[in-house]
Specification:
The chain is of the alpha+beta class. 36% of the residues lie in helices and 27% in strands. It has one domain: Aspartate Aminotransferase, domain 1 (Alpha-Beta Complex). Strands 1-2-3-4-6-5 form a six-stranded antiparallel sheet. Helix 1 packs across helix 3. This is YjbR protein. It comes from Dokdonella fugitiva.
Length: 143
């Protein structure tokens, strides 16, 4: 079980992340901030406004494939509703998710909302080096 304080601690430990309201977190993207997690506003009655459900957190995911994978992996922890159809976010039951799983989700949310120039920096550096070495090794010497 993850508490609200756990959510706050995990989210604010990420770089360039801020809390915009109670359990509403965003990450800097240039001169703007983009949402990574926020409380679920549940529709309890069709004719009444949505109400914050403090036991569920909406978390941004990379894309709809990542969302589908989470939904299939653990439907007791991750779910969605029609309001989020076609949108890359998953609803997370805080009473079921582990701190480790939530940390990973928040890290992925930050990566999904980070500036394009910051995405994949570490992987680009590690994958480019072997490719450059292979290219250099296959070059024929100049004559």
């Amino acid at each position: 079980m993850v508490t609200h304080e756990d959510v706050r601690t995990l989210a604010l430990a990420l770089p360039d992340t801020r809390e915009d309201g109670p359990l509403v977190f965003s990450v800097r993207n240039g001169d703007k901030y983009k949402g990574i997690a926020w409380p679920w506003r549940e529709r309890v009655h069709p004719r009444k406004p949505r109400v914050v459900n403090h036991d569920v957190l909406a978390v941004r995911v990379a894309d709809l494939d990542a969302k589908e994978l989470l939904l299939l992996s653990d439907p007791d922890t991750f779910f969605t509703e029609p309001h989020y159809d076609g949108y890359p976010a998953v609803l997370v039951r805080l009473g079921r998710v582990t701190r480790t799983a939530l940390r990973g989700l928040l890290q992925q949310a930050c990566a999904a909302q980070a500036p394009k120039s910051a995405r994949g920096r570490s992987t680009r550096a590690t994958t480019a080096a072997p490719a450059a070495r292979r290219k250099a090794a296959t070059r024929s010497p100049r004559t």
